[in-house]
Amino acid sequence: MSEPGDKKLTVPKFSSFKPKAPAAAPSATSERSRDRKRDRDERPKEKRARHESRRHNDHLKHESEHRRQHRKRSRSRSPSQERALVKRVEVATIPKDNPSDGVFFIDKKGDPLIRRYGGNDRSRVPLYRRSGRGRVLGSGGYLYIHRDGPQERFSVRQPGEGASTLRDRALFQSKTHRAKPFRIRVRSNPGGTDAHVEEDFVPLSKSSKRQRAEEPGSEDEKTAYRSIKGKAKAHEFSDSDIDFDSDAEDGEFDVGSDDPLRQRSIQLSRRVKEHPGDIEAWFELINHQDVLLSIGGSLDGEATKAEVHSFAEIKISMFESALSHAKKPEDEERLLLGLMLEAAQVWSSSKLESRWTDLAKKYDDSFCLWKARIDYKLTNLVAFQYNDMKALMVDRLQTVYKQAMVSISPGPSRLASNAETQRYEQMVYVFLRTTRFMYDAGFRELAVAAWQALLELNLQRPAVYDAMAELQIVSSFKEFWEDESPRIGEDNALGWSHFVQMDGVVDPPESQTDDDTVPKSRDVYKCWGATERLRATNSRKPARATDDVLEDDPYRVVMFSDIEELLFVIPPEVVPSLWKPLVDAFLLFCGLPTAFRTSDWTEAAENDTVIMSNMKLFEKDVLQRPNEPDVLDETKRVPMFKQDASRYALSADLLFAGPGWFSPFSGWTSTSKDSDGPVPLAAVSNTLRLLLKSRGCQELAEYSLAIEVVNDPSNTKKRAKAFIKQDPTNLKLYNAYALAEFSNGNGEIGLQVVGSAAGLITTSSRTGGLTLWNTWAWLELHEGNNAQALVRICAATDESWRNASATMPSPSQLLKAYQSLSATLEHQMSAKQLDEAIATAESLAVLAYLTAQEGSEPTSEAQGSISAAMEKIWTVSSELCAQGQAKSSTHERLLQVAARFLYHHASRGPFRRAYLRDQLSQCIDLFPRNTIFLSLFSWASNMFGIDDPVRDILRKVALANANDSISNRVFAIRYELQRGNVYSTQAAFERALESPTCRSNPDIWRCYTKFSYARQQLRSKAKDVFFRGLRHCPWSKELALEAYTTLVSVMDEFELRSVFNTMSSKGLRIHVDLDEFLAQQKKT
């Protein structure tokens, strides 16, 4: 091998020119001195060149046999031989006429012919190792080779480009889950000196020469092909290769030992092995599998079905191991629930049914196991029967009523109590789920009648019946029901209490007539579907014997015997603490947001896949949005204010929101108030008005007025005055009336109302007065009167400013207002008056926004200091977290005030989107299900970058296991409808329906079917989506009717008849028999 000291080896060896004739050889003495000097100067460079040249020749493919053999000899030399060779070369002379004998040389000039021919000599360029389809093995990204004529060129493929993104997933998957750790072991050779112990490198692979030279008795010898153990196979990595109980062997180095996820797995495995009774450790280990699954997913972060199935089997094994060590009943319940949820992805239907039957007998008092069993049976198309499911739910009502100890929460805690409030809260939840199930199965009038009866029986019960026995109360109520007097929710209804006071002498209701029209259509099946839906819409109101109903429909008139098994009497001492959860449950049945959300059972119902429905606005958006990227100017784009299936913490500014802010009544109430809801909106308005009038439920006044405004905006003044007349000192009603007028576009009237109400503020009503001043300040801010808004905040602390003009307060006056509000806030926080503290914090934020002189964010004349306002809000937020109120509705309302500030500031002048995203991301971390935070974060995100912050925060936070909800899934689909394309929206639907939270939601399946049919690219898959939805939601009649409306043109006659036969065999309510309808249509 030629050494770097030879000057002749520096001559480039290209065919484009010939080397010059060698000069006369210098003297030996001068030659040696120059060699030593050059050796000292260039030794570092030559050492690197020697290393690079060796690596270059390892990849060379088109070299001569002589040079290949020469390289083997040079690498097989021992270091002592190489040192000797270096010493000899220093005094040796290279023949002048053969400069190409050396293996390595340095080109310092380059080849000028590269410009002429466009590339290097291919025979002298090493080939990269390819991993298939032009990809380069070992590349850190999408590096691949493609041909450009005769040349090969490199390109970088961006994510999503190319024929298939999934083919390249291995390049980007986490090494934690995908890569097999390569282990390097340093072992001593007991037989003597190692063959390469003195070499200056560690061989990562064995050459054929070394393999032949090794002794056959080494401990790492592989199985020979003649062995009785069978054909020799390459060793595969397995879990058994890792010993979690002991440290690594001496002399062994694992290149993956610094991976935090693997270290976490080792720690948890060791922990459950050392302490098998630690159930929390088992749950941490089981939940850690979800982290590993997400890390090992595809490029978009989603795991494949095979991976989900594999991890489910692992988790089942862990659950079973943990169950054998569980000692507490609550731990056993949690483990059983997790086991059965994972088993639904792996076990067969027969095995699941057998196991559920055994658990139902052993744990009949467990609510969460009962609910999980009901969910399983609801989604089993083969075994589903309406009558059987109804019987199970009714039996649960009777079981809870008789239990001595009942579950205190819907979660898997097994904590029981004998408190009557907990008992009836659970019964209300079961009743809500039962009636929603009956309604979706087609028995609408029965479900509505059951709610009328329950509200009348418990919230309209005469006071004289409180001391009676339950049987006597039920018997008296039966007389009221069969008298067919006006019932709650109907026009002119005054309630059961009024009926008893009048001794049954009340005006009868007007008779109604069912609409028996038949829609016209050339397609007889489409005509039947339209007729069936029309009959179902008419059946939302239970009929009476005096009504003109269709003779062949025995279900239209609901008798007391039809609903008796569903009813229960709430004791009078429990009603004051239970009327709010009961009203919330009724609102959820009607597809409306809750008014109070004071119970864990109510929060569980808000995310129940059977209860949450009536997404009519979502269905409309799915059909109308073009699914094209928004190309409008970002400054003209507004947030998605109207959304159904949304989650908020209700406040007055939301209940009476105008077109420029979020409203909880933007679902079916915005599409059709009479026909799109479970009941007409007028029926809800009548119900709430009667409850407010007869029971004195004053806390329901704001919500009731909001319903009145939505139902009939022109009647706002009349309804507001009627409510104020009942409670003239309630400042919240004045505040609500002012906001209602402002939302209707009557800003001047709103200012007059709030100005008149300010004169009613006294010392005792100062808290309600502060809310009124805040509303007045916000109204001025919306009108652009910042100075006047500042005066309103000062008036909250100083009465001398209440009649002041729009002059700017002096610094001393501002300081006085600031100190007064700060002292009030400190007192309220220490006294745990949190609702009042939120109003004070809002006043302080407005004051800081309008008065702070310096800020880190850009401002204009119409804006204030948003950073100062947010600082005040986050200070109060940290104090609430310190008091254990981090997840409370009070804290959520405070952060909604912050979101309102952010949007107001951004809509009035310059702002930084990064600042808005940073503030809103903190809000989302605390309340990941809040639709306001998610919508504003989406609006503030710039979509022109490579990364999408909205999809990122949805995947990492909002759609994580604990935060996954129906509202977040619907928001994710809406986002793709607005900003994505057809296929990204399809993927969002698929991810939502793969989630346990939405897997059995009929409305999402319906919207997915409509979306697929409305897009030409997906129309061929619409039928498949429909049948998948029918398997998961066999109780939903509305979903089944999609075959006769949306998909009627792509369904053949056999499929249409099969769908009808399925509905009939499962016991769903059918108004018009298909065979009779077809026969009648043929005659006509």
Automatic annotation (TrEMBL):
GO terms for biological process: negative regulation of RNA catabolic process; regulatory ncRNA-mediated heterochromatin formation. This is NRDE-2, necessary for RNA interference. Keywords: Nucleus. Pfam families: NRDE-2. Residues 31-45, 211-224 have a biased composition (Basic and acidic residues). Gene3D superfamilies: Tetratricopeptide repeat domain (1.25.40.10). It is found in: Nucleus. Belongs to the NRDE2 family. Residues 239-257 have a biased composition (Acidic residues). Residues 46-59, 67-76 have a biased composition (Basic residues). InterPro entries: NRDE-2, TPR-like_helical_dom_sf. One of its GO terms (cellular component) is catalytic step 2 spliceosome. PANTHER family: NUCLEAR EXOSOME REGULATOR NRDE2 (PTHR13471:SF0), TETRATRICOPEPTIDE-LIKE HELICAL (PTHR13471). Its main location: nucleus. Residues 12-28 have a biased composition (Low complexity).
